[in-house]
Design a protein that fits this description.
- The structure holds 2 protein chains of 2 kinds.
- Chain A contains 11 helices and 10 strands.
- By secondary structure, chain A is an alpha/beta fold.
- In chain A, strands 6-7-8-3-9-10 form a 6-stranded mixed sheet, with helices on both faces. Chain A has a 4-stranded antiparallel sheet with strand order 2-1-4-5, covered by helices on one side.
- In chain A, a hairpin with a 2-residue loop joins β4 and β5.
- In chain A, α2 packs parallel to α6 and α5 packs across α6.
- Chain A is globular and about 65 Å long.
- Chain B is mostly helical.
- Chain B has 2 domains: 57 residues; 324 residues, Orthogonal Bundle (ABC transporter involved in vitamin B12 uptake, BtuC).
- Chain B has 18 helices and 2 strands.
- Chain B has a two-stranded antiparallel ribbon.
- Chain B is globular.
- The interface between A and B is large, with 49 and 34 residues.
Chain lengths: 282, 426
């Protein structure tokens, strides 16, 4: 295994009497696509919200090896997390709907551009350094638009895009923030099979060509099994399995969590079969 | 004809309901009149026939409306969106044409002291609208107490001039700075609030400032206000017939006949200049990262946080800059009137400025100009109607909001385009 990028140690999150995440420990590695799976309500999104500073964990330590060396995420205010190189998307897409696609991507580079604009003062007077920085920002946006196939849409309002493209745009926006680790909350939800396949390709490309690690919450098991290097399985806030896909597929605890109980309504039978069976693989 | 009766009954019901509501409203408004009785006491006169006529008119009107619109509710116009798009796409040209007109206005044949005065008022409201647009239109923070900053600016100038003898030009930046500080002071406690809650706190803040002005007798003069605020000078040359010892008045400087109109025209141009500074600033800052962050914050605060935008600082800058322009406008107001009192800074002013922003189309610069003109001119035009002036004003507002619920010019152009930014595109 390679260098760790994210080390989660004994993470616990309580909401009053409800324990959403219970003593979770796992490590994500820098050259991996790590997937967090589990039935609905298992606490996956809560883990994301703890990582990205939206929740302050009740207990635990979250070490992130970011742009400026290791930081403890649980001590950072939410808006300070991204500048260390951790970007995320949301389960229910959160775009700046009234703004154009390109503007969405430029806003993602806010902190870099703020510095370049001399915290607005230089920018007001049209300093050359700011114009250069803005051109770079547009180039970066252009790059990721091309990668996600949204180049044609650049000047359209984000809200006018079809659903699948909005998902892609949200990922492109997170990428424009310059992450080392990209956290995706159900990126394939609502995508058709072709779009899901493209998403898989994109995530593998990020890992292989751009050196961006991916942490992924996903219910689409065929996608997870195909692209994940490492899977963490949660059930009722507890980790029940952790390992490469091949191992997870055979894990009796996982099979029980998905098949043996009644909460797996969100899993269509063919997906459950895919998870339990030996087909697919990646 | 079964289909006809099928629509007739619900329409009759609808019209009947409207007539009933109207009758209830008309009963006290039109149906009762207080008249002095024989023994000097007030007695009520009833005019029930007027109520009946009024309700009948509403009934007929509602029925006619239902038939004309074929049962559909009054719908916002779809076509005017094209106009809005056209205007904002060629915003620069419309803006320049408007500016040229504004500059030429005092020299046009119909220009009188009255027109220039009204134009000055419009320009001031335009400036206030542009200032508030930063807070409401761009950053999406509903501010119902904007007049507080206007008051801070006005009193800053008046007090600095009164106690320290400072002139208008040196007070202008100080007033802006003080108003911006007030904006930050208001901003800090209310940053966690959103939407309605924020609106209520800002409303309270506006009232607090006004009450402080009323009650802090020793400094602000309380309800009496501050009089004898120095009038502006043309860079040191006063607009007076007989200036003080050693001063050259404006008309002698240019060898003109003395006229009180000079000062009116000068004030107009001063307001125009201040407004243009505001406009250039807002146009510019919209295209800077902070401006885009404001708009992003308006669209989705959580996504902003996930992208590393500090919502606190971003909102505070919006509050501070919006307040600063309110402060500039306030200083101008003080020097124009020569007298200020808390009376001038009531909630209705905040409401009017907000109405201008909303009516213009949130975030639209040209929209604000149109809306300010509409809001200032409507009551002026309606002066002949005397009692019914505000009724007409209200009706016009309601009609505009039905016709264009998102404002007169609600179309938004992106702050940068891929083709534009990359010199012709790929």
């Amino acid at each position: 295994m390679s260098r760790p990028i994210l080390e989660v140690l004994h993470l616990t999150m309580r909401f009053g009497g409800l324990v959403a995440v219970d003593d979770l420990t796992f490590t994500a590695y820098a050259d991996d696509v790590t997937a967090i799976i589990g039935p609905n309500g298992a606490g996956k999104t809560t883990v994301f919200n703890c990582l990205t500073g939206f929740y302050r964990p009740t207990a635990g330590q979250l070490t992130f090896h970011g742009h400026e060396g290791p930081v403890l995420l649980e001590r950072l205010e939410g808006f300070r997390v991204p500048r260390h190189g951790l970007a995320r998307t949301f389960q229910n897409i959160r775009l700046f709907g009234g703004m154009s696609v390109l503007e969405n991507l430029v806003v993602a580079q806010h902190n870099r551009l703020m510095r370049a604009s001399g915290y607005t003062l230089l920018g007001l007077f049209g300093a050359a350094s700011y114009r250069r920085a803005e051109a770079e920002a547009v180039e970066r946006a252009h790059f990721w638009l091309e990668r996600t196939g949204l180049l044609e849409r650049a000047d359209r309002p984000a809200a006018s895009l079809p659903y699948g493209e909005q998902r892609k745009l949200e990922i492109a926006r997170a990428l424009c923030a310059g992450p080392k680790l990209l956290c995706l909350d159900e990126p394939a939800a609502g995508l058709n099979p072709r779009e899901t396949a493209e998403l898989g390709e994109l995530l593998l490309e990020l890992r292989d060509r751009h050196g961006i690690a991916v942490l992924l919450i996903e219910h689409d098991m065929s996608l997870v099994m195909r692209i994940a290097d490492h899977i963490v399985v949660l059930d009722y806030g507890r980790k029940i399995a952790d390992g490469p896909p091949a191992e997870i597929k055979r894990d009796p605890a996982v099979i029980k969590a998905y098949l043996g109980e009644t909460e797996e309504e969100e899993l269509p039978p063919e997906v459950a079969a895919d998870l339990a069976g030996s087909g697919g693989g990646g | 004809m079964a289909a006809a009766t099928g629509v007739l009954v619900p329409r009759l019901k609808d019209a009947g309901l409207a007539a009933l509501v109207a009758a209830v409203l008309f009963l006290p408004i039109l149906g009762m009149e207080t008249v002095p009785g024989a023994d000097g006491r007030l007695t009520l006169d009833f005019h029930f026939h007027i109520v009946v006529i009024g309700a009948a008119v509403v009934f007929a009107g509602r029925l006619a409306m239902l038939y004309l619109s074929r049962g559909r509710a009054l719908r916002p116009s779809g076509r005017s969106g094209v106009v809005a798009e056209f205007v904002s796409r060629h915003g620069t040209w419309f803006g320049l044409a408007g500016l040229a007109f504004a500059i030429a206005l005092p020299f046009l044949p119909f220009a009188s002291r009255y027109t220039i005065d009204v134009a000055t008022t419009i320009v001031i409201y335009v400036m206030l609208g542009w200032g508030l647009n930063i807070v409401v239109g761009l950053a999406g923070l509903l501010d119902l107490g904007y007049v507080a900053f206007y008051a801070v600016g006005a009193y800053s100038y008046a007090l600095l001039a009164h106690w320290f003898g400072l002139g208008f030009w040196s007070c202008l930046p100080i007033a802006g700075l003080l108003a911006a500080t007030a904006g930050v002071l208001l901003g800090f406690p209310v940053l966690r609030l959103r939407g309605d809650y924020l609106a209520i706190v800002t409303l309270g803040f506006g009232e607090i400032i006004r009450l402080v002005l009323i009650n802090w007798h020793e400094v602000t003069g309380g309800p009496n206000g501050i009089a004898d605020i120095p009038r502006p000078t043309f860079f040191g040359f006063p607009f007076t017939r007989s200036p003080a010892e050693g001063e050259t008045p404006f008309h002698e400087l240019f060898g003109l006949e003395f006229s009180t109109l000079h000062r009116v025209v000068f004030l107009y141009y001063l307001a125009l200049a201040l407004a243009m500074v505001t406009n250039l600033f807002v146009l510019r800052i919209r295209k800077l990262p902070i401006g885009r962050a404001w708009e992003a914050l308006r669209e989705d605060e959580i996504a902003c946080k996930a992208l590393g935008i500090n919502p606190t600082n971003t909102k505070l800058t919006a509050f501070a800059l919006g307040a600063m322009f309110g402060g500039f406008a306030g200083s101008f107001f003080a020097t124009r009137q020569g007298f200020i009192s808390p009376e001038s800074f009531t909630f209705i002013e905040s409401a009017i400025i907000l109405a201008i922003v909303v009516l213009g189309g949130m975030g639209s610069q040209i929209g604000v100009v149109l809306a300010a003109a509409v809001i200032v001119l409507l009551p002026e035009v309606g002066r002949e109607f005397e009692t019914y002036r505000m009724l007409l004003f209200g009706a016009a507002m309601v009609l505009i909001m039905i016709w264009r619920p998102r404002g007169l010019l609600a179309h938004r152009e992106p702050t940068l385009t891929l083709a534009g930014a990359r010199g012709g595109g790929p």
